[in-house]
Prior knowledge:
Blueprint: E1 9-16, E2 20-26, E3 32-39, H1 46-56, E4 63-70, E5 78-80, E6 87-89, H2 90-97, E7 101-106, H3 107-114, E8 123-126, E9 137-142, E10 146-154, E11 157-161, H4 175-184, H5 199-212, H6 227-236, H7 240-264, E12 270-272, H8 281-286, H9 289-294, H10 300-304, E13 308-311, H11 316-328
Amino acid sequence: MNNDSSINTINLIADIGGTNIRLAITDSNNNISEIETYQCQQFPHLSNVIHQYLSDKNLLNSCVNSCLAIACPVDTDSISMTNLPWKFSQKQLKEELGLNSLTLINDYTAIAMAIPLLTDQQKVKIGQGEAEAKQPIAVCGPGTGLGVANLVNIDDHWHCIGGEGGHTDFAPIDELDVKIFQELMKTKKRISYEQLISGYGLEQIYQALVVINNQEPQNTELTKLTAKDISTQALAGSCPTSEQALSQFCKILGSFAGNLALTTGSSGGVYIAGGIVPRFIDYVKGSDFRARFETKGRMSHLNKETPTYIITESQPGLLGAAAYLNQIC
């Protein structure tokens, strides 16, 4: 890296989604400043928005080390975003912007990398158990889908192990789980956890319960409620089926999170990320989430000792990008 002290060196980080891109500056202590949000659709290319940010901050002549968290695979030089027409070469992007260094990481890797930096004000603990220092950490995030990642500490450096754990087979636990599973199997060949623990999943649970409860709403649009509608009605206590759906959602999430804890030996804790669960933290506390997490037969004692948390930090992607960049610099 460029060590010329006469040149202003900055660490640029970004969290790039399908709608917004957030850019910021970080220092060696992972303090984040100068956060700006841009609408992706207003720019023809990623290089344009990064150039705009550097120009806005009078940083075009700086030595820039960058880490960009982006919502798509990053394991090849050629990048094609899932929900945007942006396509580019990592090498060419670095050259075009004149960056000193460029590192791209998956957006979920960034969220995972943020976890060791979270303070008590950036997370909420659910249930008992105490995290063991430098031990494996698991994270899952119900959102559009169900993201899963794991962190392991090697020689005081955190390494993220990604995967597609959200697509593992759903295992029904109680009688209602079984009924929901049977209802969904009428139209699907296979049921994964993502099909239940996501925004779409909450909608599917609700729709299955309408049939299971032999409800015939006069307005068929009631069976097409969005996840936000369902959770809002459940929290307001205005719809018994919505309450039942959200309750079962929390149970299934607890079972899945508990499976992660056992599979990865996550005595460092299991964290819940994503845009859904932080909306109803108090509800989760009062639900059977933790009971399902702990109920693992002969291994229940392990999960009873493993803490669970909900991430409340508003910018985990930027924080994780900062942590990743500072670890490799």
